[in-house]
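Hi F.,

I've been meaning to write this up properly since the lab meeting, where we talked about keeping a consistent format for the predictions we share between groups. The idea is simple: the sequence comes first, exactly as it goes in, then the structure tokens exactly as they come out, then a line or two of notes. No screenshots and no reformatting. I'm using this chain as the first example so we have something concrete to point to.
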Amino acid sequence: MSLLSIFRHFFTLGWVSFGGPAAHIGYFKTTFVDRLKWLSNEEYAQLVALSQMLPGPGSSQVGFALGYRQGGLGGAITAFIAFTLPSVILMLIAASVSAQFVEQAWLQGIIAGLKLLAVVVVADAIWGMAKQFCQRAITIVIALLSTIIMLVMSGLLSQLLVLALGAILGLLFLQQSNLMQKTQTHFNAPTAKARKRQVISWPPLVLFALLILGLPMAFAYWPQLNTLAISQHFYQAGSLVFGGGHVVLPLLEQSVGATLGQDTFLTGYALAQAVPGPMFTLATYLGYFLMPSAPILGALLATLMVFLPGFLLVLTVINQWQNLAAKPALRGVLMGINAAVVGLLASAFYQPIATSAIHHWSDAIFALLGFVLLYRFRPPIGLMVAGFALLGFLCSGL
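Output, unedited:
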């Protein structure tokens, strides 16, 4: 299949794929499985399972793998660019408007409204992830321990600690759990002949490791490169995101939130909910403000680096993932990590999201009403964004 054809299909989806990762996976199935017949339901279920196993943006990893199946590495890169480009364009426009009118009272009101929306969306994400990942006593304990640790001593090292704690406890107590049981019912285990053919691709794994270890060292030893130093923060965040796009929020907040300020950070998060395509384009908005001397370059660099680790890991295991998914130890580790991620997001909900958005009893009431509305009726997220932006705008004139 030509790269132009791959680009056309994914670019079209990039403009209409509202609703977050789960919705994106549904759009992909309708387009590439049901309509275009690129692959069977069983093969598509395998790609979805692969995205669930790895850190990174799940739906974008599925799209990357779909492009890889149709056009090799060139097809994978084309699919990523095409699907992500609409969201990047919209986030760049939003960042440019925000930079020009930042001192206006009406914009400050809109930002306050969007920060309340962030409270609503993250609360809903925590509730949904807790129901999915914390169904056993040990996973509840992991989530609670992770929350307490992050509230007591926040920071990147603490995040690594809670993820490691979740992995260890999952390895010890959750190996027999049926992780991805529903997905596994759609396909058979690989045959002995297939297992011989399937091998891990080492070059992307080596590059993944070199970047995660080498970027901090490079910027430490060559200060002249410090204008590009934001790349390491986004690469580290993309390397640690388990459990969905919302988890990029606490990871980036710890690394770049202080530099930007909470208003800019949470406004970008709320806007990432409103645009179609992957939530990871929050990095586009943040990168724009982190490199004021070259905002477009900063936005594109941040976007590339937050997606890159997830794609390198897909390339590493795409031919071997079925064997890996069948290992009980790995399934237990992943269940423990996902439970820890719930605690990670819960701590971020308190600080900085709720503490920076709720200053008055009326803010708490609006946030509570928004949560009930989102949980009970599931309105389009674009409508929620418009409603909270209008609320903030009206309140700014009072």
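Notes:
Residues 177-197 have pLDDT under 50 and may be disordered.
The CA atoms of residues 191 and 273 lie 42 Å apart.

If this format works for you, I'll send the rest the same way.

G.
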